[in-house]
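I have been asked to look over a protein record a colleague put together. This is what I was given:
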Amino acid sequence: MKNLSEQAGLLSKKKKMQEKLHAFMKQQGDKGIATEMAATSRQLKGASGD
């Protein structure tokens, strides 16, 4: 597998995609890793993961 994300011709596309992702996260109130770390406090205690 070849990582294409650092190819010069794709850097502008990557930047645009990152901007869209950050705008969506902001709209959703997603604070990235902070949101993930707080997720355990919102999970049901004793719920099966099936």
About this structure: The CA atoms of residues 16 and 22 lie 10 Å apart.
